[in-house]
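Work package 3, deliverable 3.1, input record:
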Amino acid sequence: MQQTKRRSFPIHIVVFLAPAVLLYTVFMVIPLINSLRLSFFALGNQSQQTFVGLQNYIKLFTDNNFAPFFWRALRNNFVFFAVHMLVQNPIGLLLAALLAEGGRIRNFFRTVIFMPTVLSVVIIGFIWQLILNPLWGVAEGILESVGLGAWFGPWLGKPETALITVSLISVWQFVGIPMILFYAALIGIPEELMEAARVDGASAWEAFWRIKFPLILPTIGIVGILTFVGNFNAFDLIYTMKGANAGPDFSTDIMGTLFFRTFFGQQLQLGNPTMGATVAAMMFLIILTGVLLYTFLWARRVQTYEM
Amino acid sequence: MKTTSYSRPWQSVERVLPIVILTLYAIIALFPIVMVLMNSFKAKKAIFGAPFTFPSSETFSLIGYETVAERATFHLYFLNSAIITSVALILTLFIGAMAAWALAEYDFPGNTLMALYLSLGIMIPIRLGTVGILRLMVDLKLVNTLTGLILIYVAQSLPLTIFILSQFMRQVPRDLKDAARIDGASEYRIFGMVLPLVRPAIGAIGIFTMIPIWNDLWFPLIISPSAKTATVTLGVQQFLGQFVSDWNAVLASLTLAMVPILILYIVFSRQMIRSITAGAIK
């Protein structure tokens, strides 16, 4: 039981909390609120702010200079997210299930497979640019060696394939995160449960889907929401590989790159802080919606078993 | 035991198949990294002529590293990254531990609300406040300084640190703290006493805080893009942009940027993974 000491508010609690609350509030919460607020303003010639209500949003959704970019970035971002959900997370689950058996070799694999995840996205982006570069011919050489040479193409350069290619590179880098989270959940399942299933004659495959899978449902939700937040906040990889213009022909443009371009401008277009803030506010709304859906629709319904 | 009903060949497939899949995937994970490391030590001709072989006495060359040493100020970038990461890390851990302790130990009015407020930042990325942060940095004259970046990274890392550490601090046995209180120790003394007890958690969180800070491109690019304050990640990004056609230099700089983090990871990987699996992060 915690003791309550409620006379005057104890000073030591203030001392313990103040630095964290202060830094977090000043450098994160207030700027975030200010950014959201700025999305309701426009900057005049003398950079004076005037309140414009929802006009920035209307502009973002309908104006010819903004709307096509916004809707494309939003759609691309959902594709980016879908690739992660359909490729990264199932592979992560598969690897985790295989690793969870334990043993020395598996611990080695665990370390190796997680390795790309700790590297900077900038490094990963450049590495894959080199690997996929037809000039170096490494990717082509490998495909040829397994008889698939005809498949190879300048995937990063073509608008039809660039987005999927970039998404898969991101999957390659971050598969370690779902893997390790699923792994942690799987090794938490008591051995007796699996023992009981084995006695009942269940195969490993059946035991996995009937017993382990339902038990790790909460983790699936967490992985899903982490993927969502990470993907709708992504920027580095596309900026590194395709620049702020997210080429070719904006085919890899996602919310993060759109935000950067709108805020800072690019060759032909001046930077626009208030429209940038509007894009950021949309990202905020999207992420918030995801988090709320997760909290109220998933986390509330999925039963967490005490193990 | 009659526990398994299937026949022998199937059993051995079940034993071998996981290892085959894991091996294949490990190759996929490692291959691009190895290609860069390996080829960074080769002459240009060999990079293109025989990309899949290890450097031999004939193909070995350090030309890429020489170019990087001449043209780029990597030592400065490393220094900047090291300062930013270590100062931000120490501040985050200390300040975070203090707040976590307050939330875990004392039952004061508004405790839950405070915990909720501080954990908002776990899910809401700090990047979304960039417009506001840049303005604040301009007002505080912290643009193109390491201090500015450090403050941002501390704010960014605090929520998760506090959340995880407070869970660990709740597990510190009551008796220990009560005994100290009876002996008349101040609350600050008790905090100092508890801190070493959660050291494993602090270590794990340290690694998880460090990696995103070291790897970040966004804030150096926006808040501190000057050559003097560039971090390794930003420096590599800009250097590579200029030297795209010099393959030796590109491969060498990628290797230089990669190796410190890889070494750190290999040294700490056990602790890091153990901390996740011990339920530190759930």
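The two ends of chain A are 24 Å apart (CA to CA).
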